[in-house]
Design goal:
Blueprint lengths: L5 E8 L9 E8 L4 E5 L6 H8 L7 E6 L2 E2 L5 H6 L1 E4 L11 H5 L1 H5 L4 H14 L16 H13 L5 E5 L7 H18 L2 E6 L2 H7 L2 E6 L3 E6 L1 H6 L4 H7 L3 H6 L14 E2 L5 H10 L5 E4 L5 E5 L18 E3 L4 H10 L4 E5 L5 E6 H9 L5 H12 L1
Parallel strand pairs: 3-8, 3-9, 6-7, 7-8, 11-12, 14-15
Antiparallel strand pairs: 1-2, 1-4, 4-5, 9-10, 12-13, 15-16
Helix pairs in contact: 5-6, 14-15
The protein binds adenosine-5'-triphosphate and magnesium ion.
Length: about 375
């Protein structure tokens, strides 16, 4: 089934007897196929928002539209078949096997046995669990494996919308990272619309196409892409929430190929030195880069190396980074090599441009003054 759009319009929820609304007036739009992360402190209304979407609880005011249709115009039981729900603390049925757990919604939908079995096999494969585990009970799996089963169960009927409430909350950091990566890979294949709750800002930045930062009462402090959030937090609350090391976090979001590199001034053995000196003069580093016939870097050449008629053979150490590297890792490599710039190469080792600490500082500087300090602080933290 295709992904659905989701829209919350002036949504409010007051629990009976509560002094203040859990959600006062929340509006946001999620595009089809996007992961929208809800993030915010405990009690700010994240789980409430999720349960309003699939009508486990009812709205006090406002509207929720799934693919343009109000969820209120639909029967809750029927609505929930269009919405996969993976909840905080997993929530598998302990007395049912993994296969039975995964097939919960397909069975409700009246799929025949063969179709359910096929789907279970397919999903076990998708979440990377061996088929033989299908006959086990939840207690016979590790916490991380159970989480994956929870995701599989939510995906089982191929719903256009998935709600995931801290799906990886109960997992240790290493397995959590593995699950996050697997999940992103999975999402690249299935392209669901996903509302993903976490109170971990790093998880939000990693998983979200967009992030909704909520304050108490479900107040939307900011709704933005991870990069925007890190670049321009809307207020002190968001800035605090995002954390002091937001420069570093931004560097973990972008890759070397995403930023404008300095052009490399390249020469080959046999080129006239006049030309090489001209190029060196144009270069921001004052050097030219000697490359082989395949445009692979061999050495940096300075004035002294260019005193003869023609460029001769040289062999030096050239610090290099890959265009697919995260900026954070590339910066870390430069700092470890104790150089201010390095050659960015593609997967074949060909020169793509020059990456420098200065470029990275400039990149961070797009967010306003103080960037150099931030880059330096980020560098310190990495080094
Ligand atoms: N059934 C309920 N009856 C009354 N109040 C409730 C109920 N469920 C939640 N609340 C209150 O509504 C507010 C929002 O709760 P919610 O569970 O949505 O928070 P949350 O953002 O998911 O928090 P956490 O990160 O701790 O899971 C809290 O103040 C909570 O105490
Ligand atoms: Mg919650």
């Amino acid at each position: 089934m295709d992904a659905a759009t989701l829209e919350l319009r002036n949504v409010s929820k007051q629990y009976p007897g509560a002094a203040a609304p859990a959600i006062a007036d929340l509006s946001l739009e999620v595009e089809a196929g996007e992961i929208c992360v809800l993030v915010g402190p405990s009690g700010c209304g994240k789980t409430t928002a999720m349960r309003l979407i699939n009508r486990m609880i009812e709205l006090t005011g406002g509207e929720i539209l799934l693919d343009g249709t109000s969820v209120h115009s639909r029967k809750p039981s029927e609505l929930r078949r269009d919405i996969g729900y993976a909840i905080q603390q997993i929530g598998l049925f302990p007395h049912q096997t993994i296969a039975q757990n995964i097939a919960t919604v397909p069975k409700l939908l009246g799929w025949d046995k063969a179709r359910c079995t096929n789907r279970v096999e397919e999903l076990m494969e998708l979440i990377g669990l061996p088929q033989e585990m299908a006959e086990r009970f939840p207690a016979q799996l590790s916490g991380g494996q159970r989480q994956r089963v929870g995701v599989a169960r939510a995906l089982a009927a191929d719903p256009p919308l998935m709600l995931m409430d801290e799906p990886f909350g109960a997992v240790d950091p290493i397995n959590r990272e593995r699950l996050q990566n697997e999940f992103l890979r999975l999402q690249a294949q299935v392209r669901k619309t996903i509302v993903f709750v976490t109170h971990d800002i790093d998880e939000a930045i990693k998983m979200g196409d967009r992030i909704a930062v909520l304050k108490e009462g479900g107040v939307l402090a900011q709704f933005a892409t991870p990069a925007e959030l890190l670049m321009a937090p809307a207020d002190d609350f968001v800035e605090d929430f995002v954390g002091a090391d937001r420069a570093l976090k931004r560097l973990a979001l972008e890759r070397v190929r995403d930023i404008e590199l300095w052009p490399a001034r390249m020469v080959q053995v046999g080129d006239p030195n006049v030309k090489a000196r001209e190029l060196a003069a144009q270069s921001p580093t004052g050097h030219v880069l000697l490359v082989d016939e395949g445009s692979r870097p061999l050495a940096w050449l300075n004035e002294r190396d260019l005193s003869f008629d023609k460029v001769g053979p040289h062999k030096g150490r050239v610090a290099s980074v890959e265009v697919d590297d995260l900026l954070r890792d590339a910066l870390s490599d430069l700092l470890q090599d104790q150089v201010l710039y390095g050659v960015a190469v593609d997967a074949e080792g060909r020169v793509a441009g020059i990456l420098s600490v200065e470029i990275i500082a400039q990149f961070l500087g797009d967010q306003g003054p103080g960037h150099i300090e931030e880059a330096a602080a980020a560098a310190d933290r990495i080094a």
